Amino acid sequence: MRWSRSYIPTLKEAPADAEVISHKLLVRAGMIRKMTSGIYTWLPLGLRALEKAKAIVRREMNAAGACEILMPMVIPADLWIETGRWDKFGDQLLRFKDRNGRDCCLGPTHEEAVTGLLRGEVRSYRQLPLNVYQIQTKFRDELRPRFGLMRGREFLMKDAYSFDADDAGADKSYMAMRDAYHRIFSGMTLDFRQVEADTGAIGGNFSHEFMVLAETGEDSIASCTGWPGCEWAANVERAPVVTAFKEDSAPCPPMEEVATPNQHSIEEVCAFLGVESRALIKTLLLVADGAPVAVLLRGDRELNEIKLTKLLGADRLAFASPEQVREWSGAPAGFAGPAGLKGVDRLYADNELKSGNDWIAGANRADTHVRHLSLIRDVTLPVTWADLRNAVAGDPCPRCGRPVELKRGIEVGHIFKLGTRYSDAMHAVFLDESGREQPMIMGCYGIGVSRVIAACIEQNFDGDGIMFPPPLAPCDVHLVCLDPQNAGVAAKADALNADLTALGLETLYDDREERPGVKFKDADLIGLPAQVVVGGKSLARGEVEVKNRRSGDRTTLPAEGFREAFAVWYQGVLRSWRP
Ligand code: ATP
Ligand code: MG
C-alpha cells in the first residue's frame, strides 16, 4: 500500500486519556481513532492488523472442525428472558425497544441466540456434534471502558458454540477448542498461558482462560514455578490455596484487651503495637443476599470474594456499611473481632488461621484490640473453615507443591464447558439412539480479537513504537523512499516495491514528500517487522539499507539482485521471532 494514497494519520503525542502503551501507540501510529468512550474506528493500518488476527483465528477454527456463521447483533429480549439473563446480565446489556415497542438488546455474547437457532433444527443425535462460530462485533456497556481496545464497549469477538450428544463428546469438543486456541496464540507468536478460570456470569462446569503475559494486564495469574514441567496456572480469582496445617503447641496466655486509640487500619494497629500484620486477625463484615457474615483472614491476606460468594452460594455480596459495622460489632469500623461479635451468626475463617493459636484482633469496642486470642478457646460462634484468601507468591502449587509465582496477564480467550445450562433453560433437545429426548451438551469459546491486537502491542514495543510480530503486522515490509522527487530514486523504489510484492510480501511504501527523519520515526512507530530504505547516496554505492525492527540490526543489501538477497535476509527476520 502506498502511504500517499492511504490514510495513516500518525501523531507525535498520545491522547491525554491513553493510559496504557497499546492505546497510545495505536492512536499515534494512526491505526485507530476514538469515536466516544470505548468505541473506536479502525483506520487502514489498524484494520489490516485486525484482519490478520481474524484470518489466523478463522484458519484454526476451520481446521478444528468448527463452521463459520454470522448471527445478528440485535437479539430480541424473549430469548434472554428464557434463560433469566435479561434481568441477570445487569447494565452491561444494552437494552432498547424497536418501533413496535418490542424489547431488544445488542448481543454481548450469543449463547441465547445460538441455542435459539439450533433448538428447532437439530433433532437427532445423528446431527451432533456440531460447532458453529462467528467473528462479530459485540456490545457491552462496560462500567469502566478503558485502555483503548483492551476494554471497549464495542469490540470484535470470535465466539464459538459446541453442541454434543453426551458428556464425553462435549469434553472432546472442549479439548479440540483448547488445542485450537494454543495453535491460534502460538501462531500469533504471543507469549501466553492457559489458566484455570472462574466461570463468571456465563456459568457452567469448567473453564480456562488464555492470558497474554504483560505487566499492564488487568488479571493476576498464579502459576507454578515448575513451568513448563508442571503447567499449573490459574487466575488468582479462582486459584485454590492449599494450606498445610501446622500444630501450634505453645500455650496461649489468657486473652486481654489493649488500648489502640484511633488505630483503625491493620497497618496502624501493627505500627502501634510493634507487631507484623501476620500476627493479626482481620475481621471483615459483609452482607450476603441481605444477611450478615463475618470473615476472618490473617492480617496480611486479601479476601477472595469469588471464593466466598461460591461458598455461600450467594447472588450478591457487599461489604457492610459503617452503620452496619457499628450495629453488629458495637464499635466503629476497624475494631471488629471474632470474640464477642453480637450481630452476626455466620463466621467463616480462612484455613490458614487454623495453624495459629495466639492472635491479636479487634475487641468489638472503640479504640480497643485484644491479644492472646485463641479461636478455639475464646470464640463462641461456630467457625466454618474454608479457603477464602487470594493466592500469593510462594504458596504451594496445588498440583505439585512447588512454590507459585504471580504474573499479570491480559485475557484474550476464554473457553467454557457449559453443560446443559442453556439447553435446559431453552429446551434445546435431541432424540438419542433409543429415541429418548435429551438436552444438548454445550460449550462456548470466545476470543477477544480486537483485544488481541492491543495485547500483542503490550508485549511488543520499545521507546520508539510498536514491534509487530510478523503474523499480526499490518504489512510485512516498510519501504521508505528518501527522495521521491528524484526520478531515479523513485523508479528504483518502485522496482524494489515490485520485487517485494513478487516475493509474496505486503509492503507499506512510504512515498511521501517528507523529511527522512519524519519517515524513520514513523517507520519505527508503526513497527512493521522489516524496513527497507532507498536513498540516492546508498543507491550510488549500489546498496539498499535494511533493518530488522525488533532486533534493531541494520545491514545493506545489493541493489542489483535485491530480490534474492532480501528473501534470504528476511528469513532471518522471521527466525528472530520464533521462540
Ligand atoms: P473480562 O473479564 O476481561 O471482562 P469476560 O470474562 O467478560 O472478560 P468473555 O465473556 O469470556 O470475557 O468474552 C470472551 C473474550 O472477549 C474475552 O476473553 C476477552 O478477550 C474479550 N472481551 C471481553 N470483554 C471485552 C471488552 N470489554 N473489550 C474487549 N474485549 C473484551
Ligand atoms: Mg467482562
Quickly count the helices: 16
Strand fraction equals: 25-35%
Give the integer mean of the pLDDT values: 95
Which molecules other than protein and nucleic acid are bound?
A: adenosine-5'-triphosphate, magnesium ion
Percent range for helical residues?
A: 25-40%
- pLDDT under 50 segments (min length 5)? none
The major pleated sheet works out as: 9 strands, mixed
Rg, please? 29 Å
Principal-axis shape equals: globular
* E-strand count: 31
Whole-Å distance between the termini? 30 Å
Backbone structural class: alpha+beta
What is this structure, in a nutshell?
This protein has 579 residues and is α+β, with helices and mostly antiparallel strands. Strands 3, 7, 8, 9, 10, 11, 12, 21 and 24 form a nine-stranded mixed sheet that branches. Bound molecules: adenosine-5'-triphosphate (ATP) and magnesium ion.
